[in-house]
Design goal:
The complex is a heterodimer. By secondary structure, chain A is mainly α. Chain A has 14 helices and no strands. Classes of the chains: A mainly alpha, B mainly alpha. Chains A and B meet through helix 1, helix 2 and helix 3 of A and helix 4, helix 5, helix 8, helix 9 and helix 11 of B.
Chain lengths: ~280, ~230
């Protein structure tokens, strides 16, 4: 066989199997058969054990071999959901909820003054007025307002605050006193009913009112100011303890100048009552 | 399918050859595809018996290829090869021929990796060689049996040392691994035509060398091949 013989794929396959298709390729066929035979090299027992164990462990570590169950196709999160997932969006949401809740509560006016005032100031920046109104307070706040008005001598608004005081004073006086109490009660009732009438009645009525305020002043602390204010014309009486009976007498004596003795009596009685209250 | 192993070129010797395993010889030969499929399926689950079968079936040839390609530590490279096969066996789909082709491809890559490591750290190579020599000297490694087992292969491989790397790889994969042209091309990362050309030139050079050992082989021209 000449060296120029074309080797087909089949010839090459046979040659690699160790079968010479041409005498000139006998050496190559022998070489192929020899290398095929010598390439079967036994592996040491230790290597076999080691390699098999490692392969089995590696294959087991690659488990699960079965195709994993298909991941359930979840809908793409909506844009709103994705936005909400953002931390800033969450923070904004919390802030919005806080603002709405607090503004609603503040607008309702059900919060204590200590909380209402800061909230009102806060929302006042935004133009909302959540400050508590005067009519909403029938207690101490009304006392102050009435007294201030009494100080100024402005009878237009004073009764609104004085009413509460007078009502309370009336109750106290009516509970443990005599006609003088009734007189005061009458005066205060007038103030309740018609402020203009009280103011028009002149200084005496106001003085009577103030007296009753003074009497109330002996009852509680918030009235201390009233007593002091009312006693501005007096010497050192505002500084004295309002709980004294004498003080109440002096006040009335100074203010009224004996205009109304009933007031004096009422003042005494009120003072006494104030002591009882205190 | 009867004679599957013979069709693949391994012949009755390779797979049936005992490998010091307590497995029946019949389990080493996949005469039909079904047992092989069962073994691969079990191997995917990490069954040691399946890996023993696969290992006994292919390891002698894989070890021979690794040694023929000049691996410094063929058994270590063999272990790395099987480890790589085990890691990726879950993705394997095919028959015994495909598995064998895949195994030789992985072994070839291990050879390449080892050659690259040797280039990067030549000192390690000398240390490995010295250690292997010391082990043989101390009797830890049976130098005689080791030499007898490899001397013939080394001589045979030495006879093709003048061939290019592609030609050597082509011949060894085609002969030792019994890979087809297409499988060899895939393992070497080249085209089938390149493999055909390489094997034809390699055969011509080897023929010339074997006929005239003293003469310098003359590579055939392209016109001669065609």
């Amino acid at each position: 066989m000449s060296q120029d013989r074309h080797l087909s794929d089949h010839d090459i396959e046979q040659l690699f199997m160790g079968n010479a298709v041409d005498p000139s390729l006998y050496g190559v066929a022998t070489w192929a058969a020899a290398i095929r035979r010598s390439a079967d090299i036994s592996v040491g027992a230790s290597a076999v054990t080691e390699h098999v164990a490692a392969a089995a462990a590696a294959a087991a570590a690659r488990l699960p071999i079965y195709p994993a169950p298909p991941i359930p196709q979840t809908a793409t999160p909506s844009r709103l959901r994705r936005v909400y997932n953002n931390f800033a969006a969450r923070l904004a949401t919390v802030a919005a909820v806080f603002v709405l809740a607090t503004s609603g509560i503040a607008a309702a006016g059900v919060l204590p003054d200590s909380v209402q005032e800061p909230l009102a100031d806060f929302y006042g920046i935004a133009g909302f007025d959540f400050h508590p109104t005067d009519t909403s307070a029938d207690d101490g706040a009304g006392d102050d307002g009435g007294v201030r008005l009494g100080e100024d001598g402005d009878g237009d608004i004073a009764p609104a605050g004085v009413d509460a005081d007078d009502d309370q004073a009336d109750d106290d006086q009516a509970t443990g006193n005599d006609q003088a109490d009734d007189d005061q009660a009458t005066d205060n009732d007038q103030a309740d009913d018609d402020q203009a009438t009280d103011n028009e009645q002149g200084d005496d009525d106001q003085a009577t009112d103030n007296d009753s305020d003074d009497d109330q002043a002996t009852d509680n602390d918030s009235d201390d100011d009233q007593a002091t204010d009312n006693d501005q014309g007096d010497d050192d009486q505002g500084d004295d303890d309002q709980g004294d009976d004498d003080q109440g007498d002096d006040d009335q004596g100074d203010d009224d100048g004996g205009d109304d003795q009933g007031d004096d009596d009422g003042g005494d009685d009120d003072s006494d009552q104030g002591e009882d209250d205190t | 399918m009867v004679g599957h192993e013979s069709d693949e070129g391994f012949g009755p010797r390779g797979p049936v050859r005992p490998l010091k395993l307590s497995l029946p010889a019949t389990e080493f030969t996949w005469i039909v595809d079904a047992p092989f499929d069962a073994a691969v399926l079990a191997a995917k689950e990490g069954a040691p018996w399946a890996w023993e079968q696969l290992y006994s079936w292919l390891s002698p040839r894989l070890l021979g290829y690794l040694r023929a390609r000049g691996s410094r530590d063929p058994e270590d490279a063999l272990g790395e090869t099987w480890l790589q096969l085990a890691r990726n066996v879950a993705t394997f789909e095919g028959d015994a021929t495909g598995f064998r082709s895949w195994a030789f491809t992985v072994a070839h890559h291990r050879v390449i990796d080892e050659a690259r490591r040797r280039k990067r750290s030549p000192l390690t190579k000398s240390l490995d060689d010295a250690l292997a020599e010391d082990l043989r000297r101390m009797g830890v490694v049976d130098a005689e049996s080791d030499a007898l087992a490899t001397v013939e292969l080394d001589e045979l491989v030495g006879s093709i040392a003048f061939l290019s790397d592609l030609q050597q790889s082509t011949l060894l994969l085609r002969i030792i691994g019994d890979l087809s042209v297409a499988q060899t091309a895939e393992a070497l990362g080249t085209s089938e035509s390149a493999i055909k050309t390489a094997q034809y030139r390699a055969i011509s050079k080897l023929r010339d060398r074997l006929e005239n050992p003293a003469t310098k082989p003359v590579s055939p021209s392209v016109t001669e091949m065609t």
